[in-house]
């Protein structure tokens, strides 16, 4: 629900099915069948939404799914530049996709327009996604790209494979897979830790999160309220701790939207009211706090609250680009490359 990029493609497939169903059946039958389907869909949606509505969280649901996402999309603009960059990358690493796509256009198989329409609907959802930073959004493109390539490949083999169609198909497919995996070959055999560092580098505090979470669990109880001031929600999972503050990541606070100040004030008020047992502070620029478009006032107030009410337990410090270590609170050097800091509430 947080990233509803499938709406255009789901809507398109439903509309195409609806039009074809109505064409093939009488109006009474179409109305009754479609009515039953819509009733079932609405009923299922209501059952899913019932806990949210009964819990009084509807306005927050709407805010997250519709309002926030509209700002989230708008911040990246509506230029086609990023789409062209992704297409260039696809052609560079997977040139055979272009060949198969051209074949698809030339042979125009049955319902060719349907596959192209689906491809276009997906591109409408992801065309402005920043290049490389959010490449995972393009996963929704892959099923339709595979169908187009599969149809084209089968057509080529049927026409030119002759008596050796099976063996030739296997050989070509294996070769294509090797070509596809070649650019990422060094990533395939890395440990989870090294893979994290290779892709996200030390600027995203993933590798050190489990160690800090273990430290957090050691100074708190399962029922204690804690807070991660950053966008490292995995720490909650690793430590088996939870927060009473609505924002389990601070990234929404950093977007330049009309809601940003309201969100920041809400977090500060909840901090003052709930007084978490422990706070994890992320100092990394890509963690959705420092280095983002967040107000200096919020940073100053949150840091002041921590300094006044909490003691430093320790910090995770990076030694270089590959290795880091834990430093107990009193030994933390402000000049060190500090990633995550753990604070505990001062004793009365």
Write the layout of secondary structure elements.
Elements: H1 7-24, H2 27-54, H3 58-74, H4 81-93, H5 96-107, H6 112-126, H7 142-160, H8 165-181, H9 192-200, H10 209-218, E1 226-229, H11 234-239, H12 251-254, H13 260-274, E2 278-282, H14 296-309, E3 310-318, E4 324-328, E5 337-345
Parallel strand pairs: 1-2
Antiparallel strand pairs: 2-5, 3-4, 3-5
Quick structural overview:
By secondary structure, this protein is an alpha+beta fold. Helices cover 57% and strands 9% of the residues.
How would you characterize the overall build of this protein?
The chain contains 14 helices and five strands. By secondary structure, the protein is α+β, with helices and mostly antiparallel strands. It folds into three domains: 1-75, no CATH class; 77-186, no CATH class; 209-345. The protein has a five-stranded mixed sheet. Helix 5 crosses helix 7 (142-160). The longest helix is centred in the first third of the chain and has 28 residues, at 27-54. It is globular, with a radius of gyration of 26 Å. The mean pLDDT is 87.
Number of domain units = 3
β-strand percent reads 5-15%
Helix-strand sequence: HHHHHHHHHHEHHHEHEEE
The helix count comes to: 14
Strand order of the largest sheet: 1-2-5-3-4
Give the low-pLDDT segments: none
The general outline is globular
β-strand number: 5
Q: What about the largest sheet? A: 5 strands, mixed
Helix/strand class: alpha+beta
Mean pLDDT: 87
């Amino acid at each position: 629900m947080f990233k509803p990029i499938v709406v255009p493609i789901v809507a398109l497939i439903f509309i195409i099915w609806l039009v074809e169903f109505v064409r093939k059946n009488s109006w009474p039958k179409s109305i009754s069948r479609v009515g039953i389907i819509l009733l079932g869909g609405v009923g299922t949606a209501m059952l899913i939404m019932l806990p949210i509505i009964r819990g009084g969280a509807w306005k927050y649901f709407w805010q997250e799914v519709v309002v926030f996402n509209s700002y989230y999309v708008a911040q990246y603009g509506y230029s086609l530049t990023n789409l062209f960059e992704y297409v260039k990358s696809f052609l560079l690493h997977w040139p055979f996709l272009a060949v198969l796509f051209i074949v698809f256009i030339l042979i125009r198989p049955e319902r060719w327009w349907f596959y192209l329409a689906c491809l276009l609907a997906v591109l409408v959802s992801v065309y402005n996604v920043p290049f490389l930073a959010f490449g995972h959004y393009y996963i929704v493109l892959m099923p339709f790209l595979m169908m187009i390539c599969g149809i084209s490949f089968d057509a080529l083999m049927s026409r030119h494979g002759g008596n050796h169609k099976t063996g030739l198909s296997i050989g070509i497919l294996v070769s294509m897979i090797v070509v596809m995996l070649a650019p990422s070959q060094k990533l395939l055999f890395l440990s989870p830790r090294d893979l994290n560092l290779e892709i996200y580098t030390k600027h995203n505090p993933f590798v050190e999160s489990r160690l800090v979470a273990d430290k957090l669990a050691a100074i708190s109880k399962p029922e204690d309220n804690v807070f991660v001031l950053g966008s490292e929600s995995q720490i909650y999972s690793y430590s088996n701790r939870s927060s009473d503050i609505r924002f389990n990541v601070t990234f929404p606070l950093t977007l330049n939207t009309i809601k940003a100040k309201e969100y920041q004030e809400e977090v500060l008020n909840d901090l003052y009211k709930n007084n978490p047992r422990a706070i994890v502070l992320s100092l990394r620029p890509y963690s959705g706090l420092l280095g983002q478009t967040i107000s200096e006032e919020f940073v100053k107030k949150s840091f002041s609250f921590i300094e006044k009410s909490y003691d430093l337990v320790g910090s995770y410090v990076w030694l270089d680009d590959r290795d880091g270590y834990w430093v107990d609170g009193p030994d933390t050097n402000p000049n060190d490359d500090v990633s995550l800091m753990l604070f505990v509430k001062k004793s009365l």
